[in-house]
Amino acid sequence: MDEKRLEAAIERICSEYVDKLGICNVGRNLLCNYLKTNYIDYSYIQTLVMRDRKKFLKKIYQPLTLSTEEGGISILDGLTVNGYDEEFSSVRLLQIVDVAGMGKSTMTKRMFLDIVEKGTGYPMYVELRRLLFSENLEDEIAVSTIGMNENILRENFRNLLLSGNVIMFLDGYDEIGADKRQSVIEAINAMINKYPQNAYILTSRPDPNLVGFTGFQRVNINPLKKQEAFQLLGRYDENGETSKLLIRRLHDKGYYAAIYDFLKNPLLCSLLFAAFDYKQTIPLKKHLFYSQVYEAYFEKHDLSKGDYVHEKKSGLDIFDFDKVLRIVGFESLKLQKVEYSKDEIEALIDLAHHFCSDLQFEVRDFLYDILHSVPLFSKDGVYFKWNHKSLQEYFAARYIVIDAKERQDTIMTELYNSDHVDKYANLLDILYDLDNYNFHRLLTLPFLKDFMKYYQFNFRKVEGIDDDTIKLRVSLLYERKGYISYTNRKYEDSVFDFILDEWDRFYKMYGERLSQSSGLKVSGLTFCRLLKHKKNYTFINLLRHRNVPIFRRVNKIIGAPDENMRMGEGEFKEIGAYSDFSYSQDAYNFANTSLSFKNDGYFTIIDNDKVKKYAEKIEDMIFERNSSGSIFDGI
User: Fold this and answer.
1) Fewer CB within a 10 Å sphere, N or C end of the chain?
2) Coil, strand, or helix at residue 308?
3) What is the pLDDT of residues 335-353, one digit of tens each?
4) 284 by DSSP, 3-state: which?
5) Is 149 in contact with 126 (CB distance < 8 Å)?
6) Helix (H) or strand (E) holding 44
7) Residues whose CB is less than 8 angstroms from the CB of residue 377 and which lie 6 or more positions away in sequence, other chains included
């Protein structure tokens, strides 16, 4: 959109949504300027592919498709997002939740641009990591986001929120420090309760604390399909020679199936392009992607400047530069931040310099290099940030494996045992490739032993109940717990209102936030099924994703509730033991199905026999590694 059309669009928004509120001229100008500045800013995107150059977001954005989160129901299910589609207008509270690199922030910025162009509301984009949450939240947003510092201007902003015409994007909940997360939930919930007519769209990586946001629908982003991945690769060079050769190689050499897990993720798609553009080989593991991209950034000639090689002001070679980055990555990960003030980023580099006392460089020169010569960071106003959190995690993982050998056991064990292990899911995934032996020795084997101990203690025969369904129950309860309730009340449209009521009622009764809920109507009763992930859920999902051979697929036997399942109305009956609801096979099967996180026809469960075999395999591997005689025989 050219400047004249942009100003006309902003004028329409302000005429429609601002002028009727009695907002002063200064406030109006600030609100108009906010839209203009951010529309221009979000119109361009800087990706890992394009180094320190920017490209139009609309040209690089591959429309992404939403799906309901683990069996939920939403009008947005299956929606391919190419802007702020009209379906969003019927959803007031929405969480877009997915893993690193799935394009959450890019999608919501594309939606912001579309709202400005169509004039469907007053959009506001709040980067949660920027807020201090030290005062009234709406006042802090007014000051930090819009620049409304005076009391009268803050009052103007509150009037805008009261109008109910704001579409507020709350980006990056997962990037907030763990110590602030509960207070952030309380602050956002309070703001939403105070201004309930607005639309709020929150983005985050998976995080158990997200259940603390009441009333939100949750959606995921579907993995890229094959053709979508190829379309995205073509966008990076406008269907030029590199993307054509890469796509042809993926077809001809049969690489697509081998690296499907990478091609379904937009970020890893971009890494593949950058890596291939540099070396024209296809790395088959995630850490090799990052390694090859780092090499590309460090060594690559800039053809746009006449084959110019970016000189490194720090004077460090590729190995020493990597050494410093590993320390910066690990130390910055400990801060649970990806964005820093100038003082903070210089302090991190200075700390790395201290640990690399044999290297001679200036802190300011290294900072220049990571912004320009090897642009893994970017500057956004007065802040300095990693271009993507996964880069921080890659270098932190390399630090753990290479530099922290004497502390590696402790660090990896603490990551696994952390109350916030979900925050380290991608880091653990990279460690799986970087040091597979120690990953299995330190993490997988203790996990398997814990499961075998749990299984042995909890599996018992129950008269009248099939053994296989008991085994299923025991395996399911290792990673989750569930509750069932019901009502005789009539819910005219759907069970969704009942689910929300029960969700809130459970929290008020027990003070515990749950992970998921679902419901159904049977024989005049409306049932609600409430589920809670256990702490080990993140690690189990990682093993599933890695196809570790300890799982088996079991067909669901739906079963049917036995009238009211022998519960009182208003009671939350826990499915917490192998014997719960064992008075009939139908009731037992219904309770098992109520522990399902997905609306499909099967469970993927941990199999005790397979666990035993894999534990033995890991123990044999450890024995072989420790038997130095078998290694050095004949040398």
Assistant:
1) C
2) strand
3) 988 899 999 999 999 999 9
4) coil
5) no
6) strand 44-45
7) 345, 370, 371, 384, 385, 386, 387
